[in-house]
User: What shape does this take?
Amino acid sequence: MPKGIKDTIEAKGFAIQIYTEDFKNEYISLTDIARYKSDEPFIVINNWLRSKDNIRFLGLWESMHNSDFKPIEFDRFKNEAGSNAFTLSPQKWIEKTKAIGIVSKPGRYGGTFAHTDIAMEFASWVSPEFKLYIIQDYKRLKLDENSRLSLGWNLNREISKINYKIHTDAIKEYLLRDPTNEQLSYKYASEADIINVALFNKRARQWREENSDLKGNMRDYASLNELLVLANMESYNAVMIGKGMEPKERMIELRNLARTQLMSLEKLDDSVIKELEGKKQS
Assistant: This one.
């Protein structure tokens, strides 16, 4: 399976591919949806593109999401749509208007893909009943993804809490001698902010001032990779505190650690995605 194919949903026995390159914007295979209606899906898609109403919908979507969309070419297609002689293929639509809502991919696992907004509109045209089955399994896919993300995020959050205890114990043992509760609280906040600045480039107070509408703290909104690096940073900072290193020196070390580990995790994410795609192919 080529780069970009993320997953497959199923509707009434028909497998429908989902395509993405940035793992944010998803494109559903119009070719697979069209097979519900005909063994020649390209004809179904081309017929859908002949409709003036469908051309208007595509043009409106592009106008809302695509700054490079060419309105003059769109107007020409819109004016000609509906006439007996009018024909339009996905490739021609993409080439002439610089559209991004529809993607044409060559190869064995290729075909015509469309952004989910457009794909659902196409599915309604093919069969309102079939569209409901598509929506049902698409929701199932999204729930599965959210469940996996939530599990991974919570696991890393718990790891971070454990390392925070190691971190605060090191502060208490090496930095403070018979501290008052007020001093202890201040030192914990000070050391926490050393890590906050090293990783997030801002102190906790600064984040709260910039995000007064959000509940919780900056670490509650960290990514999975950031939480994993945060846990490592707290352990490493505890070690450096034990060695008697000054805050400025520790800040430099922590900054370098954060940069190096985040870059490594990003590369690892890419390799894992490629490995998963390879397994799907086999």
Summary: The chain has a mean pLDDT of 79.
